[in-house]
Amino acid sequence: MQFNITPLSDSIVQSIKHKIDSKTKPLGALGMLETIALKVARIQETDSPSLKNPTLVVFAGDHGIAKEGQVNPYPQSVTAQMVYNFLEGGAAINSFCKQNSIDLKIVDAGVNHNFKNAPGLIDAKIEYGTRNYQQGPAMQLDQGYAAIAKGATIVSTIYKTGCNCIGFGEMGIGNTSSAALLMAAFTGIPIKDCVGAGTGLSSSGIAQKKEILARVFKGCTATSPIEKLAYFGGFEIAMMTGAFLRAAELKMTVLVDGFIASSALLVAHALHKNVLDYCIFMHNSGEQGHHKILEYFRQNAILDLGMRLGEGTGAAVAFPILQSAIGFLNDMASFETAQIDNPM
Ligand SMILES: Cc1cc2ncn([C@H]3O[C@H](COP(=O)(O)O)[C@@H](O)[C@H]3O)c2cc1C
Ligand SMILES: O=C(O)c1cccnc1
């Protein structure tokens, strides 16, 4: 599958920087808001960017290993139950999207439950959950490709509604384990440093999770990015990978959530480096491996609130900051128009 992601052009950098520096404030005084404004302006190739129909897509999928309960404190059944909660408006992500007027879409990427065409649910089911990677690859390679393609198609459909700003979240009990394995596979950081508490393991629970995942990691012979993705899985992670790639190809502003979303981005980045040009890192998750992924990408996140939930909640909560960055660029007066002395 080919994605044609063009790197950001430098052509308007000087004019945008000039516009930012002409605003009625000391040079650089809006800090990271200035960096974000410049990035979105470059993505949209205009000095007056806008955020149109912001949308957050939650991909849900189940994990074979989660049935055993060795790496996850909550049972696998919670994934499907949370999907119903999303559809009924009762989850954290519903609250934050409602607060910030973000359109929310829920996708069944591979939950171990038959939703029987539940109203509002996008059916992209690859399979009723992945296999347990303790016994071999979580999914077949063709399932990995199919998930990437479906993620891309879902983004294309949303883009056609006029959306130019999209974030991705996930739901999948056990997926901090897949994310840790993918992190180790794509960054080279030792697996023990990638594993964290997930939804709240005790220190002995974390030690067991590390031991189990270290064994899985050692037993994996995958070499290509797609093989690694298929081995460690997550249909929701694979679909998010395709979603990141298509969103960047379509020059959308891409909102990156926490640890799981960033693990999908590691896969996308291994397939196409330029994807990072379109990404804004919305928060630093409390899951311990996340800040190391941010370091690997050499990126700073907007918020650091100790949130460790997933679902896209970090992206949705930080969204008003992104709006502030676009807002000042479009709305503030310049020294010249406001007739304010500017010695700089
Ligand atoms: C009620 C509930 C709601 C959630 N929403 C997101 N997650 C988050 O926790 C899960 C990953 O953590 P682990 O690997 O420890 O299972 C994912 O579903 C993730 O989205 C939730 C988890 C629970 C229990
Ligand atoms: O940061 C995340 O994405 C995260 C952290 C813990 C549990 N679920 C998701």
From TrEMBL:
Keywords: Cobalamin biosynthesis, Glycosyltransferase, Transferase. The active site is at residue 311. It catalyses: 5,6-dimethylbenzimidazole + nicotinate beta-D-ribonucleotide = alpha-ribazole 5'-phosphate + nicotinate + H(+). Pathway: Nucleoside biosynthesis; alpha-ribazole biosynthesis; alpha-ribazole from 5,6-dimethylbenzimidazole: step 1/2. InterPro entries: Nict_dMeBzImd_PRibTrfase, Nict_dMeBzImd_PRibTrfase_bact, Nict_dMeBzImd_PRibTrfase_N, Nict_dMeBzImd_PRibTrfase_sf. CDD domains: DMB-PRT_CobT (cd02439). Pfam families: DBI_PRT. It is an enzyme of class 2 (transferase). The keyword Transferase applies. One of its GO terms (molecular function) is nicotinate-nucleotide-dimethylbenzimidazole phosphoribosyltransferase activity. Its EC number is 2.4.2.21. Catalyzes the synthesis of alpha-ribazole-5'-phosphate from nicotinate mononucleotide (NAMN) and 5,6-dimethylbenzimidazole (DMB). Belongs to the CobT family. This is Nicotinate-nucleotide--dimethylbenzimidazole phosphoribosyltransferase.
